[in-house]
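Translate structure to sequence.
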């Protein structure tokens, strides 16, 4: 059974990912304001939840347990990725495979939007663009959008999500679940649709978060 804490975390991620006014700017003032909004209380929420290390590594978990208020775009991006890893790691304990997939989809979208399409907008690429994700077998940066899809295994993302949803609902589909699980499954489907449509850009990524 999924806990109330997890419901709060999933709702937080879904809200942040779907709220247009939470735009990330390069200015220190905006970064601090967004950081206060999304970092408050995260440490208390994640205490005792123990996300799976298959998805959430120790660096991400330590960041969530002792969050610092982001001061710039790089800090906000790092927090969002760690938050996604935390939620994915928890959900993967209940729905193995889905937590990993949802996390890989978010990271892939960020790598494409920020590191590929938005590369010219930065004085230097964020550390996120070249960091390793050993739990997913990904090391370093990649040079093309297609390579991001391949490395993070997010080709035909909607098909992958639906296979897992059918697996955990006995082929009854998303309409057969409610509450936290439905919010999370819908969040995964929305991410998958975005990847499959290839409708992304740095501007759109900022609007998402």
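Result:
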């Amino acid at each position: 059974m999924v806990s109330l804490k997890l419901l709060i975390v999933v709702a937080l991620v879904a809200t942040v990912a779907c709220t247009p006014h939470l735009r990330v700017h390069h200015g220190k003032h905006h970064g601090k304001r967004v950081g206060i909004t999304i970092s408050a209380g995260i440490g208390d929420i994640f205490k005792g939840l123990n996300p799976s290390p298959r998805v959430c590594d120790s660096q991400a978990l330590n960041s969530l347990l002792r969050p610092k208020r982001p001061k710039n775009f790089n800090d906000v991006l790092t927090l969002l990725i760690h938050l996604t890893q935390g939620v994915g790691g928890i959900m993967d304990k209940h729905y193995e495979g889905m937590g990993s997939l949802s996390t890989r989809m978010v990271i892939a979208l960020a790598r494409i939007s920020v590191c590929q399409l938005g590369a010219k907008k930065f004085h230097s690429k964020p550390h996120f663009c070249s960091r390793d994700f050993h739990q997913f077998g990904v090391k370093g940066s990649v040079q093309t959008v297609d390579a991001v899809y391949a490395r993070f295994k997010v080709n035909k993302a909607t098909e992958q999500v639906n296979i897992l949803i059918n697996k955990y609902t006995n082929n009854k589909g998303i309409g057969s679940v409610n509450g936290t699980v439905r919010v999370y499954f819908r969040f995964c489907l929305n991410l998958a649709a975005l990847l499959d449509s290839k409708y992304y850009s740095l501007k759109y990524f900022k609007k998402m978060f």
